[in-house]
Amino acid sequence: MRHTSITALMGLLLCCLISITSAIASANTALANAQLNKTKAEPASVETKKMVVDYKYVDPLQRDTPRGALRGFTAAAAYDIDYIKAAQYLDVRYLPDTMNAKNAAVYAEQLQAILDRNIWINLEEISDDPNGNTNDNLPTYRELFGTIEIQGEKISLVLQKVPSGKSGSVWKVSNTTVAKIPQLYSDLGYGPLPEWFIEHTPEGRFFKLNIWEWALLSSYLIVAFIIVLPITWLTKWLVLRSKFTVKNEIAKWISRPLRVFLALSVNQAWLANTELTARASELMENGVLLILSIMWLVWSLISVFQSMLREHLLKKGNKQGASLLRPLVNFVRVIVFILAILIWLESLGFNASAILAGMGIGGIAIALASKQSIENLIGTMTLYSAAPIRVGNLCQFGSMRGTVEEIGLRCTRIRTLDRTVIHVPNAKLAEMEIENISEREKIRFKTDIRLPYSTNTTQLKAIIADIKALLENHEDVLESPLRVTFKGFGLHGLEINVFAYVGTQSFPTYQAVAEELQLRIMEIVEEHGSKIIPVQPYVQPAG
């Protein structure tokens, strides 16, 4: 049974994965079609994508093409941290009087900081042709590689083909762009705190982020936890001293998911007002950790509410409602998980509407793969709405008798009289004839007494009267219906029928009362000079 449930769950997850994949594919197809339509409307952009592949560079610094020049500058400034080499990619001729060509390494460092702070450069979109992009409405000796906006003014960052003694001509960052570097760095550079980390941390990168950025992010997170820790600890202490019935669950929620959520929220607020590189900013804006913490927060909060509602329902004696909480909470958690995934995909730039539309396509596959699961879910709804059984009921299920321990979303757990556990699918259980033994308000006491034919009328009447008086005077036997009658002349003797109800729902209590009544009936029969005879098999007379 457990293997079947795991298989069904894996099948359902696989179908969900297929549907989400098809949804993302649909969204990407729609995006591709939109881009294709845009390309058709702007023929000039087609030429922009035409590039020379695997160009054989002649210049040692690969400055033969715009792409080679930018790749070389990025490798030198961002990864090798060699600003002297990076300076060779700058055109430092004809600079303003306030600038000096000897400071080219400083300008290279500042330019890399500006690029890191504000834009990403996709080298695949930069021309790898020595002549550059001839359809960008710029002079043939110039190539645009980025645009920065400051106070509504767009500033273009361009490369320029300049003379070179060895290679004839090479591509460098134009002198007009270099002339703007000091002012751009002043306006768009890092603040005092990032500057401090830049000065006091080793140079280099790790996973495409500067080491100083990793140090800054880690410091922010540590300080956020230091601030949040005493607040959550004090709140937890106050909760544990309270009289809440579920104070332990609330304390765990405060000390774990709430603490992480508050720390990440404080950290996110600080980062929003801190100068970081474009790559680090994009990483932080994805909000993966924050979304995960919110999901953990809501997930645990649902458990707290489940405990509170369960305690409330049990106090009112509503065991059925308490047992219903678990499948309902699991259903709510699935909805929360799906919503969290959709919100995260939306934050990454995907169209959630297109994903939901794509999930409609995968819904057919899910319905086919989870046919039995859907049937069991409908069976669960039937069991809860009609309520033929409840948790704790002793019932007869066909040839099986046992106590209901749990009514789940897929199956019902039954504890048999032999103390074994049986899981019955709810779809099958909803179609079975169920005898709910626990719902009887009283238990029938019925027996037939057989006396020998030697018993006379006086004895028979006295026995019937005394047995009836016994039942009427017993405190556990109900007054009505109550019958003690001479049934007739049976094949094996005189038959007396005894019928009454014991006013209890407890079977052990009934057994004790029935034992007492039967022993007293035997004494009454003996007191009147008769005896109880067993049923004897009928023998056909010979001849």
How would you portray this structure in words?
This protein is an alpha+beta fold and 543 residues long. The protein is built from 17 helices and 13 strands. Helix 8 (211-240) packs antiparallel against helix 9, helix 11 (288-315) runs antiparallel to helix 12 and helix 16 packs antiparallel against helix 17 (507-527). The strands form four sheets. It has a five-stranded antiparallel sheet. It has a three-stranded antiparallel sheet with strand order 1-2-3. Belongs to the MscS (TC 1.A.23) family.
Mean pLDDT: 78
User: What class do helices, strands and sheet pairing give?
Assistant: alpha+beta
The side-by-side strand order for the widest beta sheet comes to: 9-8-7-6-10
In terms of DSSP E residues, the strand content is 15-25%
The geometry reads as: rod-shaped
Please give the share of residues in helix: 55-70%
Provide the low-confidence segments as ranges: 1-53
Q: What's the count of strands? A: 13
Largest sheet: 5 strands, antiparallel
How widely separated are the two ends? 62 Å
Please state the CA-atom Rg, rounded to the nearest Å. Answer: 43 Å
Give the helix tally.
17
**How do the helices and strands follow one another from N- to C-terminus?**
HHHHHEEEHHEEHHHHHHHEEEEHEEHEEH
Transmembrane segments: 211-233, 283-304, 324-344, 350-369
Domain Mechanosensitive ion channel MscS: 373-438
Subcellular location: Cell membrane
Signal peptide: 1-27
